[in-house]
Amino acid sequence: AEEESDSAVESEAEEAPAAEWVEAGARTVAACLQPALPGAEGGSPGPASPARTPTAPSAPPAAVPIPARPPAKPAVFIPVNRSPEVQEERLKLPILSEEQVIMEAVSENPIVIVCGETGSGKTTQVPQFLYEAGYSSDNSIIGVTEPRRVAAVAMSQRVAKEMNMSQRVVSYQIRYEGNVTEQTRIKFMTDGVLLKEIQKDFLLLKYKVVIIDEAHERSVYTDILIGLLSRIVSLRAKRLLPLKLIIMSATLRVEDFTQNQRLFTQPPPVVKVESRQFPVTVHFNKRTPLEDYSGECFRKVCKIHRMLPAGGILVFLTGQAEVHALCRRLRRAFPHARARPPEEEDQKDSVEETRKFKKSRARARKAQAAILPHISLDNYSVLPAGEGDEDREAEMDDEEAALGSDLDLDLGDDGADGGEQPDASLPMHVLPLYSLLAPEKQAKVFQPPPEGARLCVVATNVAETSLTIPGIKYVVDCGKVKKRHYDRVTGVSSFRVTWVSQASADQRAGRAGRTEPGHCYRLYSSAVFSDFDQFPPPEITRRPVEDLILQMKALNIEKVINFPFPTPPSVEALIAAEELLISLGALQAPQKAERMKQLQKSRLSCPITALGKTMATFPVAPRYAKMLALSRQHGCLPYAITIVAAMTVRELFVELDRPASSDEELATLKGRRARVAQMKRTWAGRGASLKLGDLMVLLGAVGACEYAGCSPQFCEANGLRYKAMVEIRRLRGQLTTAVNSVCPEAGLFVDPKMQPPSESQVTYLRQIVTAGLGDHLARRVQSEDLLDDKWRNAYKTPLLDDPVFIHPSSVLFKELPDFVVYQEIVETTKMYMKGVSTVEVQWIPVLLPSYCQFDKPLEEPPPAYCPEKGRVLCHRASTFYRVGWPLPAVLVD
Ligand code: CDP
Ligand code: MG
């Protein structure tokens, strides 16, 4: 699969059209994105006319007017050879009876909205309707975007299977991998992938139809795509190469799309798919909401399992750790469903596994010698000497639980759990489901449970709309959801568990009525429910938008504020994004006075710089893109790419801070935590390398893992998340390709293995990181500032009044350097900086001039002629902006 992905990355690069083309397309569209409506903005009306002409008031209703009518749809019908079983299943789907209505609407209108309950067949069937109607003839493609990777992969597989076609024809592309070929006719992809394609080919000429699926989720990229596509559709119509846009939503709340005059001058028609939903009886808890909703879920599932007729159970919890804790508890309380007896095959497998494991251990030892010569082998070894396979088993157990693997097969400790009553009745087939779960394991929920067992899926809200699990009759809803919350001003993020919206709660309940009448147990009272928000807020209003703004500026959309967002981000968020991009050098800094004027009028219109354009080609956030753009020097590229890839892929280490359900588990967890801490120290090294801090840990972990062949065993033994390591490898490949295309003379190879950086390279890397994370600088509180105890060991950042601390999991936790940059601040019990690296104070005015205030030239030493620069330079004292931290004097022009 990995090889496949590499070639996918390459083929993506090959598909890139000529650069001039993109420019031309981008310019045209930028023109069209000028205010299309009178009064939207006081900007110059000039270039807007092409977009306006077609918006004649006399245009027919219900269709977005386009000047030339698209040529009539070719009267083709491409037969699909489905199996009788598939055909029978399809006919049960409500959407089948709407096929004609949908296809007529699509043929007569450039933009159509399709609404229907989850499970009505939108995602799997609409692409097939289009295929049969010839929308992929002439080698063009039917594109479908999904906000979640899981859905893009699962749906492409499902549709290929239904159509009896290979994945060479019905394919997917997600950030790290894909199986798209020349023959691909239906392409499922994440919304981010299509956004990148728009950068290369603004008119999306290889598509005849684009379907934006799950638009109700209102993911940021989905929103942007809808804004862009609303314009691309009219541009394509002008060229007589019509593009159809289908927006699909699971809820009827589509006003943000239909009632938005900046988006669609005429509201597009909405086709509603009546769902054949069975009634779901909703049961509220009488009691006030519980703190221990997880325990309440457990009791509810037990009750259902013991007392109610057959039918799958779907439990909604908020996070991975909770999901696992409940899965364990359930597995202990009920007999496991044994999928198949442990046959010889399995034993052979395990012998093979052990052999491989031993081999990988030997390789790891060698690797250690290669990458970290100053550390003794024992520190690095996968197993401490003397401890045998038992230990490994215990760990695998734990690890597997963390990765949600086959614990359902047999753990051998049925009912061993103290408080829980073992139940010998019906076996239960317990499966976890969450987005970080490995895809093969996710796919298990679609398979029927073993004979005679009841399926119980414990899920996060991924099961809310994008995936439909067959056979669910009971839903247990804790009513909560965990979301990352960003503070708009300070950028501090925290995970918050909050009540879901009414719409989400109803979606969850609906999962119980897919195949027969069902029941939904809400673990909260109806009074609480009536206080829920009606709908969840769109993502774009909840997170920083600098990555979007950079992408949009790269598409020559200068006046971002005029962009037809379905829901615009706040002006504050737009300003914060522009400011960051200006200080990174991605946007041209206006004169101070000019900027003040812009800000007063909220007219954000800084153009992109050459550096910004380069940064926009890297598929990572702007701060990281800046690091990549700087790292051509001193052979730092492979390391910077690795660090950036590792910072981009979240949660490199397996979550070990979860609460343990038993003493043994606690002991295992403690042991594993200690080992991970030790490995981190090993990877961070000492002296110069330790100064790169947690980013050195990332580099060391990836380096060591690659030397060990990136094996699951290696990851397992060292507390690394295997899936993350595979993603990092892929992203490194992709970033290397991106860097090579910007800078062919770099001639980088996609070679996962690398020598450790030299001491001076580590220093350069620290400087590169400082330049990228300049707005994340923190200074240790000086002893004279220590007003009270809460500031002990604390750091101060320019934007926060409260103390922040180095996270205990950081290798710099005890080092307490004077200046650091951090990847992010996460608020838990305190505000903690994660991903910390040390900064030398004298670098700040040199590397981060846009954050510094330079004072008058100093009298001493006097100005001097600099022969290299051919100019007179003088020393100036400087301070860090806003907070006025004194910095050393620097030589400036
Ligand atoms: O997109 P929408 O939620 O409207 O429905 P869908 O995803 O197209 O699913 C239609 C039906 O196919 C559902 O009833 C699912 O149970 C079924 N399906 C499945 O069994 N396995 C999959 N991997 C995907 C869908
Ligand atoms: Mg769907």
How would you characterize the overall build of this protein?
With 893 residues, the chain is an alpha/beta fold. It is 39% helix and 15% strand. The protein is built from 31 helices and 24 strands. The strands form five sheets. It has a seven-stranded parallel beta sheet with strand order 3-4-2-5-6-1-7, sandwiched between helices. A six-stranded parallel beta sheet has the order 8-15-12-9-11-10, with helices on both faces. Keywords: ATP-binding, Helicase, Hydrolase, Nucleotide-binding. Residues 395-556 form the Helicase C-terminal domain. One of its GO terms (molecular function) is ATP binding. Residues 103-270 form the Helicase ATP-binding domain.
DSSP helical segment count: 31
Strand content: 15-25%
Any idea what the shape is?
globular
Q: Which ligands appear in the coordinates?
A: cytidine-5'-diphosphate, magnesium ion
Strands side by side in the biggest sheet? 3-4-2-5-6-1-7
Biggest β-sheet description: 7 strands, parallel
Keywords:
15% strand; binds magnesium ion; six-stranded parallel beta sheet; binds cytidine-5'-diphosphate; 893 residues
